[in-house]
Design brief:
It holds the Pfam family Fer4_7. GO terms for molecular function: 2 iron, 2 sulfur cluster binding; 4 iron, 4 sulfur cluster binding; ferredoxin hydrogenase activity; iron ion binding. Keywords: 2Fe-2S, 4Fe-4S, Iron, Iron-sulfur, Membrane, Metal-binding, NAD, Oxidoreductase, Repeat, Translocase. Its EC number is 1.12.7.2. The chain has 573 residues and is α/β, with parallel strands linked by helices. It has 3 domains: 3-77, Ubiquitin-like (UB roll), CATH 3.10.20.740; 90-209, Alpha-Beta Plaits (2-Layer Sandwich), CATH 3.30.70.20; 212-564, 3-Layer(aba) Sandwich (Rossmann fold), CATH 3.40.50.1780. The chain is built from 19 helices and 17 strands. It has helices at residues 21-27, 79-94, 110-117, 153-161, 196-200, 212-220, 238-241, 251-260, 269-289, 302-311, 325-340, 358-363, 382-392, 413-416, 423-437, 475-486, 516-531, 542-552, 558-564; strands at 3-8, 11-16, 51-54, 61-62, 73-75, 141-143, 168-170, 177-179, 206-208, 225-230, 265-268, 296-297, 348-354, 378-381, 455-462, 465-473, 494-498. The strands form 5 sheets. Strands 2-1-5-3-4 form a 5-stranded mixed sheet, sandwiched between helices. Strands 11-10-13-14 form a 4-stranded parallel sheet, sandwiched between helices. The protein has a 4-stranded mixed sheet with strand order 12-17-16-15, with helices on both faces. Strand 3 and strand 4 form a beta hairpin. It is globular and about 80 Å long. Bound molecules: iron/sulfur cluster (3 copies) and FE2/S2 (inorganic) cluster. Residues 96, 98-100, 103, 105-106, 109, 111-112, 147, 203-204 line the site of one iron/sulfur cluster.
Length: 573
Amino acid sequence: MGKVSVNINGKDVTVDEGTTILEACKKINIKIPTLCNHPDLETKGNCRICIVEVEGQKIFSAACCTTVRDGMKIKTNTKRVREARKIIMELIISSHRDECLSCVRSNNCELQTLSKELNVNNVTFDKNIRPIKIDKSSPAIVRDPSKCIKCGRCVEVCHDVQGVGAIYNAFRSSDMEISLPFEAKLDDVECVYCGQCINVCPVGAIYEKDDTENVWDAIEDKNKHVIVQIAPAVRVSLGEEIGMEPGSIVTGKIVAFLRRIGFDKVFDTNFAADLTIMEEGNELLYRLKNNGTLPMMTSCSPGWIRYIEFFYPELLDHVSSCKSPQQMFGALAKSYYTQKFNIDPKDIVVVSIMPCTAKKAEAIRKEMNDSGHQDVDIVLTTRELGRMVKESRILLEELQEEEFDAPLGISTGAAAIFGSTGGVMEAALRTVYEVVTGEELENIDLYDLRGIEGFKESIVKIGELEVKVAVVNSLKNAKKILEMIKKGECDYHFVEVMCCPGGCIGGGGQPIPGNNEIKMKRIDGIYYVDKGLSIRKSHKNPAVLQVYKEYLGEPLGEKSHKLLHTHYNYKSK
Ligand code: SF4
Ligand code: SF4
Ligand code: SF4
Ligand code: FES
């Protein structure tokens, strides 16, 4: 790649050809303001807040979408630039419903931060705010167009990363709006509730439905036995949500915190992740031996399930019949656990802490009541738990670490890695290998399957079998596999699909921002947890083996089928 030399504010700098002015400035520690630009998305050039002066040009250039040319002289901090940026910011604010004191994104809002950084102390334009029509139709996502600054990030992630296209740009130029077809509500369209639009929104215009009050109420209710499960990815991201370094592992502190605020038992979704491997691994073996539908595709990610139900229902036979770990946990909590401890299932409340907005919708699916009751009652995201931590005024980071309760809190390293793309596949193969060969898998770290890339594949030798596997994250990559199957060009046996980029660590309920650099730190945390556990294979989990012995019988047995498996159906809007 060729090099070009440019001069920025009097300083010479040499960069690769094709570098943008924004990137060149970053290289010499000049921070250009941005709003529509996002490190993991394509450049759009919608907001113009990043303008700079280029010598010889009468009009400003947008730093995020202008590539440098050799000999270019750039000025980023002239009076003219500063004043123009302030005017742009004032125009944005004039059509924005600013109510920072009660806004979900206050203190983590790019508009709020930038307004201060640009020293905007006064808005000289008349206010022209859209009527307040907050869309609360979805069980997971809330839209508030009166706070939208029309940056276009949500549209791009929904179309280009997820391949869904639930929201789009309506009208042109200054009339442009982020809209839904025929002004429908979010729950009227094929939104899969992935929450990726929330994660990239710079302001409080899209956010998760808040269920924290329901949890506080349940804890206060003396007639209820309230238990909680924590998903694998939450333990490496809650710390970040409350101000610690990305990737900080706070498992034991979360347990201590949840006990302090009044939960009767603190359990671990990782227990159910091990159970999932027992069921899913055996389902794969059954399909391989009995000419079943292949590739088998994983089913733990509810946004992915909703996607295939909407867009490829004819391929639903490829999806494993296993419920997700969240739902397996709920079904067992309201059957096995209540029976074992003599609790009336009517009096138990099951709360989940998940990295995922789509889990809120999964919990209320009509199929998810095999215990005879709604298996999971309330789902909170990592961000909502972060809010409860702050509201409680308990300093979680100072708490002594505590252990999960038994038996539904005992888990292995295989379960821990469910939180990262590739983790379910690696966990499944650790078990399938030993079940098929009867031999110990010596090298259990399957590095080929790790990493944040959207599409990975590998061939794994299991005894006589050569199992061809693929791991995909984000729905655009899942679509590639589905199209291969439709064309008869797919020779994979097993495919792991995660709806969100990076897997659950990049879920729609995770801390914001969550760019790829931050996601990698969360993934490192996940594998660190795995390495530190004495048992790293699901079929060696003593609590899971005990549940089969006492209650379920065997994997894929009658009781397992009733409680831990389900079927998915075509959905239309
Ligand atoms: S979106 Fe940002 S600027 Fe607007 S009210 Fe919320 S915190 Fe304030
Ligand atoms: S939740 Fe996902 S599918 Fe729904 S609008 Fe947002 S990005 Fe699109
Ligand atoms: S909803 Fe958020 S991400 Fe979408 S255009 Fe508006 S401000 Fe941007
Ligand atoms: S950040 Fe450059 S145009 Fe929006």
